[in-house]
Automatic annotation (TrEMBL):
It comes from Pedobacter soli. It comes from the Bacteria. It is a multi-pass membrane protein. The lineage of its organism: Bacteria, Pseudomonadati, Bacteroidota, Sphingobacteriia, Sphingobacteriales. The chain crosses the membrane at residues 21-39, 51-73, 85-108, 114-135. This is Uncharacterized membrane protein YphA, DoxX/SURF4 family. It is found in: Cell membrane.
Length: 154
């Protein structure tokens, strides 16, 4: 646990501002892939046609979980709130996409998504270590209440 705190502390203190733009781009890419995954649900429907009921339900739940993790996680990463948590939650999805889905489809075929998935996986690992950064919702100062403004004028 001590090593995890050291990595988190290092990431919080060594985070250049330009890296936040890549975090925002990573979040937008995850949102886009979640929406794209939802639009192309026919591939999962084809998987479920010949399957037993339990397998079909599992595939359907997995597909909907992937969509939710990409869209909600992408929004959180782009905004800079709970960045490390949502990077961690999206890691298994991207590991599965890189090593099980895209590598079997052929990495050197035209329009292969293998390299794109690898770049997103690299970004998730990077921001799992680096954290939010300066341009994030978590780093914004809250609006001061009446007590912080000084004198109360009634």
């Amino acid at each position: 646990m001590n090593m995890l705190k050291k990595i988190q502390n290092w990431g919080d203190h060594h985070h250049p501002k330009w890296l936040d733009y890549f975090r925002i781009l990573l979040g937008l890419v995850l949102i886009w892939k979640g929406v794209d995954f939802y639009i192309n649900m026919q591939a999962f429907s084809n998987l479920m046609r010949g399957a037993f009921l339990g397998t079909a339900i599992s595939i359907s739940l997995l597909a909907h979980l992937i969509i939710l993790m990409h869209i909600i996680g992408g929004m959180a990463i782009a905004l800079g709130t709970y960045t490390r948590l949502f990077c961690l939650l999206n890691l298994p999805i991207l590991i599965g996409a890189v090593f099980f889905i895209n590598i079997s489809a052929g990495i050197f075929k035209p329009y292969s998504e293998f390299w794109f998935s690898c770049a997103v996986l690299f970004g998730l690992v990077c921001f799992l270590i680096e954290g939010n950064g300066i341009l994030s919702v978590d780093r914004q100062k809250p609006y001061p209440g009446k007590a912080a403004l000084g004198k109360n004028h009634n």
